[in-house]
Specification:
By secondary structure, this protein is of the alpha/beta class. The chain has a single domain (16-194), classed as Rossmann fold (3-Layer(aba) Sandwich). It has helices at 43-51, 70-78, 90-102, 135-144, 165-172, and strands at residues 16-22, 25-31, 60-64, 82-87, 108-111, 122-127, 149-160, 176-184, 187-194. The model has no long low-confidence stretch (mean pLDDT 92).
């Protein structure tokens, strides 16, 4: 079985539309086989977005591992931020580009293997990271984010307690000022501030 962070050319395409209400915003997304959470907005992403201080979102924002685009599109919809959305999965990028148009927002969608194509710094990096890539790559995503954050920039992410949330928080404290923002049904929403 292929994972949503791999490019499986043999995977049949069967696009459909799902609907999601986040806060007061009603959004809709094209989804397809081979992308994360194709049946609807997942609880982790919802928890993350519902716990971000929306009033504070501004400047450059990176949606890392954007999938079909709910994080970046929602943030572009409710803020004046300049949103970049990156993923390694071609199908995810195709869907994200369609969903940017569908939801009438401005966002820059492009392919990047980890931070390979990132060439600027961000006020916020926001992600529901792909846990199945394994601990080594997960830690690359979380720790290397620091290199792409502005001074006082913030990394926001969500992780389930059964996926090692407590040890991730402990390890991140070596490099960041870490705040546990919310715990909801086992999902931890975490803010890691560059210091």
């Amino acid at each position: 079985m292929s994972h949503y962070f791999e490019n499986d050319k043999n995977l049949k395409s069967e696009e459909k539309i799902i609907f999601a209400k986040i806060g007061d915003e009603k959004l809709s997304f094209f989804v397809d086989h081979g992308v994360f959470s194709k049946k609807g907005l997942d609880f982790g992403t919802r928890s993350l977005l519902e716990n971000i201080n929306i009033e504070a979102i501004e400047g450059n924002v990176l949606d890392f591992g954007c999938g079909y685009g709910p994080i970046g599109i929602y943030l572009a919809k409710i803020s004046s931020a300049d949103v970049d959305m990156v993923d390694i999965n071609d199908r995810s990028l195709h869907l994200s580009q369609k969903n940017v148009v569908r939801n009438e927002v401005r966002a820059n969608v492009f392919k990047s293997d980890l931070y390979e194509k990132i060439n600027k710094k961000y006020r916020y990096i926001i992600t529901n990271p792909p846990i199945r890539v394994g601990k080594q790559i997960l830690y690359q995503i979380l720790f290397e984010a620091k290199e792409y954050l502005e001074k006082d920039g913030e990394l926001w992410f969500v992780i389930h307690k059964d996926q090692g949330a407590k040890s991730v928080v402990k390890d991140l404290q070596k490099e960041y000022l870490v705040t546990l923002i919310s715990k909801n049904k086992g999902f931890y929403v975490i803010k890691a501030k560059s210091c």
